[in-house]
Specification:
Layout lengths: L4 H4 L10 H39 L3 H29 L1 H18 L6 H29 L5 H26 L5 H7 L1 H12 L6 H6 L3 H11 L5 H9 L6 H4 L5 H23 L1 H7 L6 H26 L1 H21 L4 H19 L5 H4 L3 H32 L2 H22 L8 H13 L1
Helix pairs in contact: 2-5, 2-6, 2-7, 2-8, 3-4, 3-5, 3-19, 4-5, 4-8, 5-19, 6-7, 6-15, 11-21, 13-17, 13-19, 13-20, 15-16, 15-17, 16-17, 16-20
Length: about 450
């Protein structure tokens, strides 16, 4: 079977698309980037608002941890749920529904009167964000050309860090306002409205249609929008994937991809989320509390610089080189701060290296999980990996304040270093090289390494 004629006339690069094709690509990219940015926004926002809302709502230490971890717990639930729905019923309807849920949750934060209400609302928002991870990036990847796909998908992580940094700025602006934490948290509704407007009229994924045997509909979209698809490889790969759903993730065919995507992602985000959410407490423990707010802003914008660097080099140096060495270096940075916790140069330098390189590697969280699963299982696989990553992040966020109270900052930082070392070890053995491969062929490389 040969590649369909529709693919023979495809433009090789994005600037050659027709006006209609460029319009769709731009709209889809913006709708996905803004959705990704919202996740960073709610995590960054709670870090700035935590001290004020804890005082206003009289939160206990355990409830403080639950509120901080609530969106991460929600992502754990929403990722697999929305991912399965997207693989079964299509990308398009899920793409809009999850953002509508998030919009409602954003507004409701204005009216909370206790910690339990805030926990439940942000849990719901986390469910919607989990859906965003499971559908936004997969849909964009299925319209992306193989050349430069890594850079395009990695740019979603720039949006995450920009959202995080923007939330810290907004939080700082509302910091001196009575009840300002409510408005800073609810301000995400403005972003959600824009995102909902952009998502109207976006078509279904041609790759998903092929995975469901709807070839005629898929080829119409391929021809209309100039989508670069190796149709033969796509059909062959999905024909071989008879099992679908969560069970297929643990089959011999896909277990390597499932373990790799879940572990590397969890190991990257656990230290970042935990330290970022409770940055003030960490800085107090390091006897640098007077500089906590300014340091958090530096923390955020250093992360933006790091993920931007990762985006720029992901297609040049390859996936493995961007992932494995930074795991070991960032683990060493946290261990160094743990060994010398009273040295200001060590603290500043160690954290800056950690933030920059961790963020650079985090560009791959929007790339690797999409490339190691076939279309019939992509959203389910990404949703599950998202859930596992947020299990680690939620556990770290929940336990960090108690860890600081009971064991001290050295213990917390050494645990973070150990988590990064585990990520490096797993990636060394399981990470495939998927740079510049068609999505179907990339999934086949990941699968073949399982049976090798």
């Amino acid at each position: 079977m040969a590649t369909t004629p529709a693919t023979a006339h495809q433009p090789p690069q994005l600037p050659d698309f027709t006006r209609e094709r460029r319009r769709l690509h731009t709209k889809l990219k913006l709708a996905t980037q803004i959705g990704e940015g919202i996740d960073g926004y709610i995590i960054g926002g709670i870090g700035m608002a935590m001290a004020a809302l804890t005082a206003d709502l009289h939160l206990s230490t355990s409830m403080e941890g639950l509120v901080g971890a609530s969106p991460l717990i929600g992502i754990f639930l929403g990722g697999p749920l929305f991912g399965r729905l997207a693989d079964r019923f299509g990308r398009r309807p899920v793409f809009l529904a999850d953002m509508l849920i998030f919009l409602v949750g954003s507004v409701l934060q204005l009216f909370v009167t206790d910690g339990l209400q805030l926990f439940l609302i942000r849990l719901l928002m986390g469910v919607a964000i989990g859906g965003e991870y499971a559908i936004g990036a997969p849909l964009l990847s299925e319209y992306a050309p193989k050349e430069g796909r890594g850079r395009l998908l990695a740019s979603l992580e720039i949006s995450w860090y920009v959202g995080y940094a923007l939330a810290t700025v907004v939080g700082a602006l509302f910091a001196g306002v009575d009840g300002g934490w409510r408005w800073s948290l609810a301000s995400s509704a403005v972003i959600a409205v824009v995102c909902v407007a952009l998502r109207g009229g976006i078509p279904e994924s041609a790759r998903w249609l092929l995975s469901k045997g709807r070839r005629e509909e898929a080829e119409q979209l391929i021809e209309k929008y100039g989508i670069q698809i190796d149709v033969t490889a796509e059909l062959d790969d999905n024909t071989g994937s008879q099992r679908v759903g969560f069970g297929a993730l643990f089959s011999r065919r896909h277990i390597r991809s499932t373990v790799f995507a879940s572990v590397f992602w969890a190991a990257l985000v656990l230290p970042y989320f935990a330290i970022g959410t409770f940055w003030t407490q960490v800085f107090d423990a390091l006897h640098m509390g007077d500089n906590a707010v300014g340091a958090l802003l530096v923390y955020s914008f250093t992360a933006v610089a790091g993920v931007t660097a990762g985006c720029l080099v992901v297609d040049r140096i390859g996936r493995r080189k961007l992932l494995i060495p930074p795991f070991w270096i960032t683990g060493g940075c946290l261990a160094l701060v743990a060994v010398w916790p009273y040295s200001t140069p060590v603290i500043v330098g160690g954290f800056l290296f950690f933030i920059f390189l961790n963020a650079a590697s985090s560009a791959l969280t929007a790339v690797y999980p999409l490339e190691v699963f076939p279309t019939s299982l992509r959203a389910t696989g990404v949703g599950f990996a998202t859930a596992m990553s947020r299990v680690g992040a939620a556990v770290g966020t929940f336990l960090l304040p108690m860890g600081l109270d009971r064991f001290g900052v050295r213990f917390v930082l050494l645990v973070g270093a150990g988590v990064l070392a585990v990520g490096g070890l797993v990636s060394q053995f399981l990470a495939p090289e998927t740079t510049d491969l068609d999505l179907a062929r990339a999934a086949r490389v990941a699968r073949d390494k399982t049976s090798a």
